[in-house]
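Dear colleagues,

As part of the handover before I leave the project, I'm documenting each prediction I ran so the next person doesn't have to rerun anything. This entry is a single chain, and its sequence is reproduced below.
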Amino acid sequence: MKNTSNAYFIKEIINKNEFAEPFNDSFDLKLFINEIKEYLKKSKDLKDECNKSSADSVDAIILLNIVHNDLSRKIEDLIEKIDLPNIELINYILAITNSNFFIISNEIINQNKKEKTNSISNNDDLSQIKLKDIYGAEVDVVSANDDSIDTCNELIRKIISYNYTTKTNQQINEERITNIFKIFHLANILTNIKNAYNYYKYEFGELTKGNDEEIKIKNIPEIYYYFKLAGIDRTRNIIRENAYYGKKI
């Protein structure tokens, strides 16, 4: 089936070349633009279809790279302010992630008490249990736990790749603890943006740039909701199968 998105070839370039990946430190705008020009030379159809939608996608990629660089720089600056050995800083990040897990687990237990049940029967029950994030928005516990783990992984990668060497040998204090929570928060923002972008990159999303530097990542409804329903059924079947055989998930 022919892809109806006239910006599809841009997604193909991104998937084939590291220099076109906005969340990669090797992102190169000049090489990215040159690669687009080469694609347009090869195909008259692409050249005819290359209009405002394609240009918006390119603008959005550039803006995403700016956001990535800005957040990464802020995280690195805070790592220097925290001034702890890498392994010690990673241990604090793991502690925050574990704390989040226990908060989520406690919420599940409280919900079970309200419902007077001893266990979660299936993943649909889990999706009904809500937590409030720092902005007051409600999210289900599965998404909250996955998000916390993704943030932890992202931050550990940042710490290792930055490879900061401590300049002092001070004890942990309130300011350092505050900055550790700050980098976790910044990494969480970066992770959520990357997850939304990855939906565009690997699945059926469309990427455009709106007004006032607004980035829009939207799904193709005809495809997305069918796959979402299939995914829910598949997850439910896996949970029930593992429960039946007594396997740990």
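The radius of gyration is 22 Å. The first strand starts at residue 130 and ends at 132.

All the best with the project,
I.
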